[in-house]
Design goal:
This protein is mostly helical. The chain has eight helices and no strands. The longest helix has about 30 residues. It comes from Serratia marcescens SM39.
Length: about 210
């Protein structure tokens, strides 16, 4: 898609996200949790508009950002441990907990990995595909680790009030499994979308 059509795609994404934000914000399960979960969307959406002229992203990346944002919004609306879709998957796979938060962490690895990959490729910052993949996975894991630190700080600051935000569901290994899901997301992003992203970058940079 030519860069000239980026505003149209961004407009569609913005309308969808605003509708989701309004819907989720009417009666969220826990208002402070909702605010913390949707905060990244409220930060990133204006940034996409501020940067699209100087540094438009690929349509693939904009679309994946949309899906990640929707996961965050509905996780904030219900709290991750109570998202209905997660209960359906839990019952279908006979799991011991609602797995919706793991979907969120999967995308927390996938989307930042492809953002990092696009920036590194277009800037020529990393030489060699193997090194590029390694650096991208390291960046995705670093972002996941920072998020886990934010969760820890929230727990210290809010005490039991942070339970809905943390969404551990009694799992003592929740932090480690969250980061593992982020790593899986980064690896899947590289395996599934690298070629597609390369083609779109070439068209975008003509």
């Amino acid at each position: 898609m030519p860069a000239s059509r980026t505003p149209l795609l961004l407009s569609v994404i913005t309308l969808l996200l605003l509708a989701a934000l309004i819907h989720s914000g009417i009666r969220p399960y826990d208002r402070p949790t909702w605010l913390m979960e949707v905060a990244p969307v409220l930060v990133v959406l204006p940034l996409l508009w501020l940067t699209y002229r100087r540094y438009p992203l690929t349509p693939l990346l904009y679309t994946l950002i949309l899906f990640h944002a929707l996961i965050l919004i509905f996780g904030g609306m219900y709290s991750y441990a109570r998202v209905p879709l997660g209960f359906e998957v839990q019952q279908w796979l006979d799991l011991g907990r609602n797995p919706y938060d793991k979907l969120g962490h999967f995308f927390q690895g996938l989307v930042p990995a492809l953002v990092a990959r696009e920036i590194l490729l277009r800037g020529g910052y990393v030489q060699g595909r193997k090194m590029l993949g390694f650096v991208v996975c390291c960046i995705a894991l670093a972002i996941s680790a920072v998020y886990e630190l934010i969760e820890w700080w929230a727990a210290l600051a809010l005490g039991q009030g942070a339970d809905e935000f943390l969404g551990t569901q009694g799992d003592p290994w929740d932090t480690q499994s969250d980061m593992f899901c982020a790593l899986l997301g980064a690896l899947c992003g590289l395996l599934l979308f690298a070629g597609w992203q390369d083609r779109q970058i070439r068209r975008l940079c003509r």
